[in-house]
Amino acid sequence: MNTRFSIIPVLALLASTGLSSAETPKPNIVAPAPMPATATGPSETSESGTLKVCASTKEAPFSTADEDGFENRIAAILAKAMGRELDYQWVDRPAIYLVRDGLDKKTCDVLMGVDSGDDRLLTSEPYYRSAYAFVSEASDDFSGTRWQDAGGDGLSRFATRLYSPAGTMLKYSGKYEDNLAYLYSLIDFKSRRNQYLDVPADRLVQEVRAGNADLAIAFAPEVARYVKQSDGKLRLSLIENDLELQNGQTVDLQYSQSIATRRGDDELMKEINEALAASREEIAAVIAEEGIPSLPLADASDNDKKAEDHASNAETTGDDGAGESARN
């Protein structure tokens, strides 16, 4: 559940942790509410010589208006391999709005870095796989590789995104309640009701480096660039296990990443998959240069099953589209 493109799975997760109602905070509904993708089929640009990418100016390190995000670089590689001219439809809002305000309106045709098998979209073969991770001070010698390690002695402050499995890890580690005041200080104690708020990825890393947080917990691609920029002062440790809930559900903490189009845009997707295969080494070099720790790519059928499970969880817990999944 990489939540860059959707917070629906996380709201469902909060409602299904297996904890008592007294232990589980009620998530505020974010408005306006991006809805699941509805548009299908090609657009004029998807059938042209242009690769029209939906992108946010507010999604560093993935995408920036200066096109120095690592997904901007991968998009340029992809367009070149496809023999198309790269063009962006920029949105000055978080990536959760890209499906609704881009793909659905057919003002753009492609999303970069979507969870493989996202059932709202047509997704490509995965081009890398990573996981949630801990960020720690290298001098602390923290060696945790399991989510339970967040419950260790001496750890009390955790920098996390607001809509991520990190909150559930902290609940099950017994650290959530004591961390709430600190977490909300990262958004200046603003209310999340009727607005989308989150903690920027670089802020998570800054909090650890400044000594304000003992650990940051985030999807590794969100923070790898900033850990690398610390010149060895910080450590990025992948979480190797999944999170098993008291109700029997499992929250996956490792995700394969793909490129997405609207469902039914089959010819464009065929081109994308061919270009990915031809550019695999160049793309891998970008991922490595960014400092993102990669995992072996999972079987595509496993990814599809995970995405279906996430969607099913959201439906059964009654969420009505409080977020949109496009981080992706």
From TrEMBL:
InterPro entries: Methanol_oxidation_MoxJ, Solute-binding_3/MltF_N. Residues 1-21 form the signal peptide. One of its GO terms (biological process) is methanol catabolic process. Residues 50-293 form the Solute-binding protein family 3/N-terminal domain. Residues 302-312 have a biased composition (Basic and acidic residues). Keywords: Signal. GO terms for cellular component: periplasmic space. Residues 24-50, 294-328 are annotated as: Disordered. The keyword ATP-binding does not apply. Transmembrane segments: none annotated. It comes from the Bacteria. NCBIfam families: ABC_MoxJ. This is Methanol oxidation system protein MoxJ. It comes from Fulvimarina endophytica.
